[in-house]
Amino acid sequence: xxxxxxxxxxxxxxxCEHCVMSIDEAFRELPGVTDVRVDLVAGGRxxxxxxxxxxxxxxxxxxxxxxxxxxxxxx
Length: 75
Prior knowledge:
This protein is of the alpha+beta class.
């Protein structure tokens, strides 16, 4: 069985379920991602809990969130 790792990312700028789908898709395109759960806080800081088989590259995560049209919160 492969070890799974979980990371939680704060994301600013999300307002609706379409935003949730965009972020979910952006994270799932990253190598090793096996699950994504997004907690929407419209107008506030939403969170994405991402499970992966390997640590995610911070630069790739930032680029994926930015490409989806949102801002990754400071860690």
